[in-house]
Design a protein that fits this description.
Structural class: alpha+beta
Keywords: ATP-binding, Carbohydrate metabolism, Kinase, Nucleotide-binding, Rhamnose metabolism, Transferase, Xylose metabolism
CATH topology of the largest domain: Nucleotidyltransferase, domain 5
Distance between the termini: 33 Å
CATH superfamily of the largest domain: ATPase, nucleotide binding domain
Shape: globular
Family: Belongs to the FGGY kinase family.
Protein name: Rhamnulokinase
Radius of gyration: 22 Å
CATH architecture of the largest domain: 2-Layer Sandwich
Number of strands: 18
Bound molecules: 6-deoxy-beta-L-fructofuranose
Largest sheet: 7 strands, mixed
InterPro entries: ATPase_NBD (IPR043129), FGGY_C (IPR018485), FGGY_Carb_Kinase (IPR050406), FGGY_N (IPR018484), Rhamnulokinase (IPR013449)
Length: 469
Amino acid sequence: MAARVDGDRIRLAEAARFPNRAVPVHGRLHWDVLGLWSGILDGLRAVGEAVAVGVDSWAVDYGLLDADGRLMGNPVCYRDARNAPARDRLLAALDPADLFARTGIQHQPFNTVFQLAAEDPAALDRADRLLLIPDLIGYWLSGASACEATNASTTGLVDQGTGTWGHEWCSAAGFRADLLGAITPTGTVLGPVLPEVAAATGLGPSTAYIATASHDTAAAVAAVPYEGDRAAYISCGTWSLVGVERNAPITSPEALAAGFTNERSADGAIRFLRNVAGLWLLSESVDTWRRQGLDVDLGDLLAGAGRCERLRSVVDPDDVRFADPGDMPGRVRAYCAETGQPVPETPAAVAACVLDSLALAHRRALDDLEALTGEAVETVHIVGGGANNALLCQLTADATGRTVLAGPDEATALGNALVQAQALGLIAAGPDARRAAARASARPRRFEPRGPQDPWVRAAARLPSAAVA
Ligand code: LRH
């Protein structure tokens, strides 16, 4: 995405787009990180000139570098099956409540700390450095190895009290703490791109590499165009991250049991949120149908889902069976059959079931959020790709009985650019100036709740009361 600072706002333009898929090979689910790298170089070539560049991506995953700075292997995808047993082993050896109290991070099997506990010990011995995905791309761009703070917070290895890595968790997970470099404050200008990158892309040699809010969700939350208080966000894409921003973490046993987490915001505040499975269920369904040779058009699918009877069958999107790649429509049908609900047969019926279920899961997360924070939520900002899904936005308004403001859809790119613009002094520092620029840059679409709440309340009773990772 190319971002231009235009007075008090940012204008975004898509320069290039490339797919990102996890690839199963030899019993392991990997990311094709070199495919991503070549897509990035193509994108930079399409942009041509830039003052600065910043990278964000999904959280928790990493590459290991050897002493020559070479990537030792293809990064493993956080959905790989190796993590859950390693998590259980580590949690049996540590005090889970203490770990949560000190890191603020819920015990998702994919947290970096658990992934490292599942790593090959010989690889960890040979490794010189660990870089999270955006930091790895940043290293290839600039030669600087950062450990940017928002993404570092997702690893489950940062002690919230000291703001640094917790060394005892490194040894419990079986790796040397010196694999991790010092944590880099969000918005640090790290120097120019490498000459070879400038030559390969046409970027000027003085283009700065900036450690922006490199966790995609932190970047998206940095771009929420809040209009008032009492607002929550749903950063909606593969995941629906449902939360609020706060000054202090909540690490009570109730927050742990309810599967809430405390990640770092771009300005060092806390994003108190729950990971809800999100549009992953729909995108995996579409992939499955296409693999089966069905010609699925997303617009037609959503229009069909909109015409279906509401709340005929609902699933818990956070059920572990939906976490792995694969035959999602089959799993949705099996869930409905097992719970004595009508089985959705057509793609439109499956999509309706998934979207009703996501709206319900949004409702459940917001109710739990209010209970845990003791603060009412009146408005919900849906940002990210899900903001373009008008049906999901409307259903979320209906299910939650709250006004939904949808957009920006490219919230992650906008937040990334806002943080860079602040680092360069093009926008005044601080969260208030950034929010003002986010509001000036986005025009959210409003969805008001339709109809009574009772059908949603009754349907919510068909799901487990809380999602526990
Ligand atoms: C969303 C996201 C989310 C993480 C998950 C691994 O893309 O970064 O915030 O929990 O991926």
